[in-house]
Amino acid sequence: MGLTFAPQGDQGIWQTLENAISKASQFIYIEDQYFTNEHVFHAIYQALVRGLNFFVLVMPRKTLGWDLTAPDPTVIDSDPAKMAMALFSDFPHKVRICYLEHEKEWIYVHSKTQIVDDIFLSCGSANLDIRGLGVDLNQATSQECNLICIDEVVTAEGSRRLPQYVRARLWAEHLGLNPDNPVLLDPVAAYIKYWERSEPMHHVRFWTPKQQD
Questions:
Q1: Is the model more confident about 34 or about 189?
Q2: Fewer CB within 10 Å, N or C, the chain?
């Protein structure tokens, strides 16, 4: 269905995210319910090839074990586990695929958040799938809404205040850290200290291709 202000469809969320990923130099951090879109996968893969320091994806454990023998074509164009496997296998020291757990129960990740280099922040209702991004010829209009922000306030670390704050608070919550931990302000140092180890920390569990089911 076309929009009066965009008769050819609206792909603004995807176009903005794609632009941010293409400029990423330090890191990309994503929380998403699905992560089933090949456009996003290829953009992130190319960022890693260019020398991105790290990529962290947090998603539901259930999504990584989907039976996609008959996927919904309006939502899914690729298997999230296969894309995650390709990223992890080709960049094992730079990629962390994670799910969340509390007292042996999986936490269902329903957020749709992307943070790039502590400069770019996107958060809203658009999953990284066909429906959320409108990146399919049969569905050229995203039906979702995201808040996309590049804060004008620059921190002492050279980051933008809001993206850095949101990332640091999310990492503190997931990793069981004090939100005022100064290491969290440096994403690369925090990745090396807390994410690179691939050992369970608080709610964070690390997925590997061996866990595919």
A1: 189
A2: N
